[in-house]
Amino acid sequence: MLKKNKFQNKWRFWIDRGGTFTDIIGYDLLGNLRTFKVPSGNDYYSISPVFEMIRQVIGLKPSELLTCKNIEEIRLGTTLGTNALLERKGSKTAFLVTKGFEDVLCISHQTRSSLFSLSIKDRPLLYDTCYGVNERMDSNGSIITSLDSNTINKELEQIASNGIKSIAISFMNSYKNPSHEIAAKEIALNYSFDHISTSHEVSRLIGFVDRCSTTVIDAYLTPTVHKYVKKLKEFTGDIPLKIMQSNGGLVQASQLRGKNSILSGPAGGVVGSIETSRQSGREKIVCFDMGGTSTDVAHCLGKIEYRSKTEIEGIAIVAPMVDIHTVAAGGGSVVNFDGVQLKVGPNSAGSEPGPACYKRGGPLTITDCNLLLGFLNPKYFPKYFGKDNNQSLDQEIVIKEFEKLITNSNSREPLNMNIYQAAEGFIKIANEKMADAIKKISIDKGHDVRSYSLSCYGGAAGQHCCDVADLLGVKEILINNNASVLSALGIGLANIKKVLEESIEVIFSINTIEQITKKFNLLEEKLKKEMKSEIPNKKNLSVKKLLNLKYLGTSEPILVEFSSCNEMRKEFQKKFQKQFGFTESSKEIVISSILIEVTYRSEKLGSLSQSKTSNNLISQDKNFQKVFENGTWKQ
Asked: For the whole model, what pTM was predicted?
């Protein structure tokens, strides 16, 4: 008689590594969902605390290895790409560009952010060295000058001898004809470079400057991303590992590219916010994600909204990303008085040393303001603070630091307010910053947010959502029971996805729509082939096709869904009227680019988004808390 197999429970883990805290969600085959937070630390390669927590959850000893026997899958969102870019910790990169354009990224678009500044700084460059390559294509993709292979070989030998391990190749008009870039890459493959990025693979959009910038960023970040994945694999072993991309979709860890890692964590929050809001019957939402380091906001109408171009610290990235706006106002944002005005951010205390109340010598922050004003109760926090990580939050230190702030300022006269009024002033500044960020992604684009719901998540959003909603005139706030870890939940609810955008630049008409249909079919087949190894069932594939339309002679495209010619024209004019307040019916419409999204839906949503947490963070305390609001104490 055969023995019955003992049930083997398996876990899935979804991880969002933020600038201050790392959020972890564990979900098992029985439907149990558990949530945790661990400090991220200052070193973004420091990931061992995350896997120590995972071992505790599944009951393994510290010395035991994690395997696919007890963990079905791990999904991760990370700020690694953004951090490496901001801190200049990417790979040493060489830039190969069409001869005569070696200064293309130095000159860029010739825009000056501070027109009257007397102290002009050079544009930030990510590459170490640049070489002009003798080749040229015209705007139709026809060869003007053939590629000089001998010269490229000599240049690559010199690059390799200088210890450079990453190459960015971007030639003029390669989005029309990539044959020269393909040939140059084949030559470069004969050398021991860690990574080679070519502009036609990175971006198929018109715009040489931005395509060059994106290619250099991809070459600069991808080796760093792969190094991080390799380190993750030391912990995960044979467990399938997927990473969140900036477009709101998952990819196998080994296939993640630097250009797609910039908004990895925040994109998970938008996915989680959309899916959980949909469960409560809300589709018109403003996503409000306030964490420890920054606040991310997004506008959604039941689906992800994309943007084609993102700029970080003056560096352009051209790739389809979730349309998220970030502002430097989080729980860890440093507050100070410079003798003239109260200031919030942009610096953050992080998790080390953290806010002053952590008792690790950190500066005053927004978190300290909330603690002082009564919006945070220390008894609901674990004893994880102090130098030995065994003490509670300390309000006395905060009071002392605020007293120093208002008396030891650089002004001739002390600040004419008490410590509580000063803390409330900092809170109001942070709230205005966040409300302004929401206006940029909603009101500035013609959306009336008064009819929307404010979907709040992130560790600090609950302390500020009411004030931000009041500033915007929003009447309804949505807070999910997993709001503090919603980005991690969104990573768990996300699907494997590939998004591709390609320049077209043709007049919008019935004839061109037929050409576009053929182009979409080719791109669809291309993406499906690329996803073949990742998808066990083709039936779960869904395809979305979009067009970027604009009036002839303008530069601001509007995204519409691919349908009949008349329907797309009506949708474009409606959206243009809403955003700009007028239409130009006499002008011809141009198809700027096409965008295709292929998604593999691997998990049914319902049970996951409605799961109950099994942690002990839900408070049953019915006691009232005194808070300082609008200049007075209230209970």
From this structure: 0.85
